[in-house]
């Protein structure tokens, strides 16, 4: 063995070279402690001799069985596809936990910040689907404690304590909607209406410190909704695009478009949450006027959604309004003469999931997806990529200048395909969610079918937990029945 760092702590070299005799097996362990010499010596003694693999893995196995609830995926025919899904499910859960506990992207373990949109999606949905309700509540406490006291908005991302003063101040137009969605997810599933009364502090916008005062979650939501209402494009009930939406690559080059552009997807997402929260207020026995006010606001949004953002029976990706008034120019729509793109997946799937579409509209857009956006690799974001002009940006920033042709810059983004699977499960199109067309044609070996099944199963599992009605019924029930399982058994509250 060589390397000066191996012999004295005063040397700066940090390497070791190990030379062995000819062998077909070589095992070694690296142990130590940065703070406790006794602990380092105890670890060295423990691993001085080989340790049985089962013993080393026992603690980890217990943890992951707890995370996944020991779920196994089986089918009557025992096909290879099902075996593959069963094998990959723990890894999907593993990636979600990395994204939550060491946030910096699933492939980067160095740690980083929580993206408000990110943590409200995968981690919240996974925890609630697997009945880890206390950690989900812990996430909500952290999220609502990041809401700005004056503006009622959130940062795009923020570091956890003690580095919470490091955060992305400017947020996309949809960010403010996500904490409301996560709250609705939690309350619908658990029936924990008392959580609406839990006092949570705010964030100051000058120094990002917590305020001395705290207000109930319900008050936080009231300010959220008031802020959203102030951001409607004049003469409409459509929230402004702001700095972007879920597709991070489509940030407008022209800064004036931030105030005069609407994302159909964001409007549909907000519409869904307003209706869900109105139903929660009704079931929680809150003043009836507040629920009616939200339902009226949602109805006005749906009316303007159909008036301005749907043309020739097809929803557009975006509508660009003029200060002079009139109908907007539609982007990512068959009539779009600016971008050259005709179809956008996100507003179609969210229109189905959130119920802003009528049944007829949902079925029509399902046919559009299958004809123009569903390919062998899955459901694509758009019918073609944004045109590249050598680097200069004309309409959208990242989409027209990015050198990496992947994620949102490309067409096949697995996360958006998951929402397609969720939309198919809402419509009862489980064969489509599993990677087969309505006619029975299989996409096996191409589309991410395993992810589809997990997404579809997740929604169905949540419906069974909280007694949601059938697809597109027009109203969600918030029965939030207690699970048949002992809900206090095997929690993960130690994470928070």
**Order of helices and strands, N to C?**
HHHEHHHEHEEHHEHHEEEEHHEEHHH
- In what range is the share of β-strand residues? 5-15%
Distance between the termini: 42 Å
The overall pLDDT average reads 82
In a nutshell, what does this entry contain?
The chain is mainly alpha-helical.
Report on the structure:
By secondary structure, the protein is mainly alpha-helical. It folds into two domains: 1-51, no CATH class; 57-471, Glycosyltransferase. The protein is 41% helix and 7% strand. It has 16 helices and eleven strands. The chain has helices at residues 37-46, 53-68, 80-101, 116-120, 122-129, 133-144, 178-190, 217-230, 257-260, 264-283, 288-308, 345-354, 359-373, 414-426, 430-433, 449-466, and strands at 114-115, 157-158, 199-203, 210-216, 261-263, 310-311, 314-315, 318-320, 329-331, 374-375, 378-379. A three-stranded antiparallel beta sheet has the order 5-8-9. A two-stranded antiparallel ribbon has the order 1-2. Helix 5 (122-129) packs antiparallel against helix 6. It starts with 36 loop residues before the first helix and ends in a 30-residue tail after the last helix.
Summarize the topology.
Blueprint: H1 37-46, H2 53-68, H3 80-101, E1 114-115, H4 116-120, H5 122-129, H6 133-144, E2 157-158, H7 178-190, E3 199-203, E4 210-216, H8 217-230, H9 257-260, E5 261-263, H10 264-283, H11 288-308, E6 310-311, E7 314-315, E8 318-320, E9 329-331, H12 345-354, H13 359-373, E10 374-375, E11 378-379, H14 414-426, H15 430-433, H16 449-466
Antiparallel strand pairs: 1-2, 3-4, 5-8, 6-7, 8-9, 10-11
């Amino acid at each position: 063995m060589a390397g000066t760092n191996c012999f004295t702590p005063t040397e700066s070299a940090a390497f070791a070279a190990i030379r062995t005799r000819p062998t077909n097996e070589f095992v070694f362990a690296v142990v130590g402690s940065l703070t406790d010499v006794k602990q380092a010596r105890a670890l060295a003694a423990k691993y001085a001799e080989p340790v049985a693999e089962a013993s080393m893995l026992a603690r980890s196995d217990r943890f992951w069985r707890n995370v996944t609830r020991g779920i196994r995926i089986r089918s009557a025919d025992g096909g290879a596809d099902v075996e593959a899904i069963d094998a990959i499910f723990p890894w999907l859960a593993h990636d979600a936990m990395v994204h939550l506990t060491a946030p910096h992207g699933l492939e980067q373990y160095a740690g980083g910040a929580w993206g408000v949109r990110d943590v409200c999606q995968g981690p919240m949905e996974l925890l609630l689907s697997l009945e880890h309700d206390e950690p989900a509540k812990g996430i909500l406490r952290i999220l609502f404690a990041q809401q700005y006291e004056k503006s009622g908005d959130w940062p795009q991302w923020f570091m956890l304590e003690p580095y919470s003063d490091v955060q992305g101040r400017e947020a996309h137009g949809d960010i403010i909607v996500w904490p409301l969605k996560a709250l609705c997810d939690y309350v619908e599933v658990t029936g924990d209406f008392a959580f609406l009364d839990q006092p949570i502090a705010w964030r100051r916008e000058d120094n990002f410190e917590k305020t001395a005062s705290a207000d109930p979650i319900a008050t936080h939501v009231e300010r959220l909704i008031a802020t959203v209402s102030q951001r409607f494009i004049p003469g409409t009930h459509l929230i402004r695009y702001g700095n972007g939406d879920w597709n991070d690559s489509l940030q407008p080059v022209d800064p004036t478009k931030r105030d005069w552009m609407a994302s159909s997807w964001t409007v549909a997402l907000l519409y869904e949450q307003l209706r869900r929260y109105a139903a929660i207020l009704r079931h929680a026995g809150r003043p009836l006027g507040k629920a009616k006010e939200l339902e009226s606001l949602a109805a006005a949004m749906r009316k303007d959604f159909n008036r301005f953002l749907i043309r020739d029976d097809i929803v557009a990706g975006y509508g660009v309004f003029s200060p002079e008034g009139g109908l907007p120019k539609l982007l990512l729509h068959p009539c779009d003469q600016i971008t050259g793109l005709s179809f956008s997946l996100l507003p179609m799937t969210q229109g189905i999931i959130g119920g802003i579409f009528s049944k007829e509209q949902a079925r029509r857009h399902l046919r559009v997806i299958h004809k123009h956006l569903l390919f062998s690799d899955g459901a694509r974001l758009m019918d073609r990529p944004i045109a590249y002009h050598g680097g200069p940006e004309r309409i959208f920033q990242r989409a027209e200048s990015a050198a990496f042709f992947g994620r949102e810059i490309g067409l096949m983004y697995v996360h958006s395909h998951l929402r397609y699977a969720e939309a198919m499960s809402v419509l009862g199109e489980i064969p489509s969610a599993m990677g087969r067309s309505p006619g029975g044609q299989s996409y096996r070996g191409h589309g991410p079918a395993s992810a589809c099944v997990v997404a579809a199963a997740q929604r169905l599992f949540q419906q069974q937990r909280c007694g949601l009605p059938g697809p597109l019924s027009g109203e969600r029930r918030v029965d939030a029945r207690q699970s048949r399982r002992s809900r206090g058994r095997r929690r993960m509250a130690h994470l928070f």
